[in-house]
Amino acid sequence: MSIRDTMRNPICTNCGGPALLGEVSLEEQHLRIENARLKDELDRICTLAGRFLGKPVSAHLGAHHLPMPSSSLELGVGSATNGFGVPGQVPGSFNVPIGVDRSVFLELALAAMDELVKMAQEREPLWVPGLYGGRETLNYEEYLRVFPRCIGVRPMGFATEATRDTGLVIINGIALVETLMDANRWADMFPAMISRTSTTDVISSGMGGTRNGALQLMHAELQVLSPLVPVREVNFLRFCKQHAEDIWAVVDISIDGLCDSVAAVDCRRLPSGCLIQDMPNGYSKVTWVEHSEYDENGAHQLYRNLLSSGICFGAHRWVATLQRQCECLAILMSSVPTREHTAITPNGRRSMLKLAQRMTDNFCAGVCASTVHKWDKLSTNSSSPLGADVRVMTRRSVNDPGEPPGVVLSAATSVWLPVPPARLFNFLRNERLRSEWDILSNGGPMQEMAHIAKGQDHGNCVSLLRASAISPDKSSMLILQETCIDASGALVVYAPVDIPAMNVVMNGGDSAYVALLPSGFAILPDGPARNKNNDDGNVEGGSLLTVAFQILVNSLPMAKLNVESVETVNNLISCTVQRSNLLSIVIAKTAKHRMVESRTHLAFWKSIARW
């Protein structure tokens, strides 16, 4: 009754006098309350939109300019606005998981972007320079003092890694932004680091035909090429913003806890990404920040220091890989002559490079057991010297023209060697020394039949090698090999290939029908690069060497796996690790003696290839 009396005698909120409005219905009062709520909501949206767009958005536009949203971010999909009330800039479709307010994602993305930009620009005491000019690491106490937590407190038992690195990359800013915002191109740019990725939802595709304001949900599997380090599965927002005419930023932030559909994870990405500034002559200055929290219990003790220091997943590795890949693209698109031993047509070069990329992707999938293939992990012999350190897996290859049909067995392990990565890499890739460890060489040096350079470093290339024939009446074998090296590590991947099929490929034919099973080596430094050795100029330190094989054990896909095959490959890997110290001694010795005497010390490599 008091409320009704008050409604019959309203007071003007501006002057305090009586408001001559007559009887006010309860329905009209509800409409006024709803209008006030919607006005507050509109003001909040416009404030967010202003930060999102980088310019103010008025909340007082006419109805024909700004349709009134009925909920927090129903952003005018299909209308002539960009969803934030700015005419003429259509960002594309919006698709957000049910039950999650769009504004929550927007606020999280904006907070992550602010943190990334600050972390990319701050110096000491937030960032601590590494020894010998190495990568910068985060002062975690200073970080907690300066920055609010975007995604809550660190889970119990989780470790933290945070690094920053800066480098010049031969790619312009817009092209790099497009690569990062496209899941397939992002995976192609970092093939040894990303085993699988997808864009699950596009919340905004950008404005005015650009990626400015693009916001999307993504899923990725990040990997280190070792069976001793679990694949990291992450679900995250990726947000792109143009901060100036020549400056872009792309940031990732995990969405764990925001969506009921996101299960418990063992890795979270805190604001991570890169600040990109266009430079003269087609280059970009890239400042990369990588910040993660992860459950280290799944990683082998051998890799825990490398994980915490950022050697495995840190900013230095992303920047080094980006520099090498962009240099490769620049060389392949240029008219610089190459030192090819045979005339390969441009179409043949493309076909051969595509085949090599597929070979390397399959090698990585076999080492890390990513979901690219369905692998079944087998138990290893606990009595072997390595026990669980050897991963043996099997899968069935059916109806895949790029692989021989049958039962495929994969075996991989990682060991530490007291040899610098570059020296180990140069030994393994040298075709003249191939006979020291590869039975496919038939006891003699291999001949390089074709060479496609992929970088200024001679180690970055795709080669076609020919082994010596066993006898005059038998044809020799061809081996396709891809090698790559940068400051973060190295790869040597190879596979025997069919001679008629390679003739088709080198003439520009389709490489998808060339069947191969790759094997090879992945090399990581065992710590930050230290001072150069006075003797040969190589940096000091050791290496973590991953050895991996994929072998066809039966040509019938439905055949049962032979137990003896599993035991044999387990024993071979164990033998490799037991003899690894001999390998390191030989390589160190041959730094001065050109590895002439290595034949007796490396017989165990022959046993691996012979099997």
Secondary structure: elements and pairs:
Blueprint lengths: L1 H7 L17 H28 L48 H20 L5 E2 L7 E3 L1 H7 L11 E12 L3 H9 L1 H7 L4 E11 L10 E8 L9 E13 L2 E8 L12 E3 L2 E7 L5 E12 L5 H9 L5 H19 L12 H23 L7 E3 L12 E7 L8 E12 L3 H9 L17 E7 L7 E6 L11 E9 L2 E9 L1 H8 L12 E7 L17 E12 L8 H16 L1 H14 L9 H8 L1
Antiparallel strand pairs: 1-2, 2-3, 3-10, 4-5, 5-6, 6-7, 7-9, 8-10, 9-10, 11-12, 12-13, 13-19, 14-15, 15-16, 16-17, 17-18, 18-19
Helix pairs in contact: 2-3, 5-6, 9-11, 12-14
In brief, what are we looking at here?
This protein has 14 helices and 19 strands.
Q: How does this structure look, described?
A:
The protein is α+β, with helices and mostly antiparallel strands and 611 residues long. Helices cover 30% and strands 25% of the residues. Strands 1, 2, 3, 4, 5, 6, 7, 8, 9 and 10 form a ten-stranded antiparallel β-sheet that branches. A nine-stranded antiparallel β-sheet has the order 11-12-13-19-18-17-16-15-14, sandwiched between helices. A hairpin with a 7-residue loop joins strand 14 and strand 15. Helix 2 (26-53) packs parallel to helix 3 (102-121) and helix 9 (346-368) packs across helix 11. The longest helix has 28 residues, at 26-53. It is elongated. Mean pLDDT is 77; it is low at 60-96, 532-537 and 591-611.
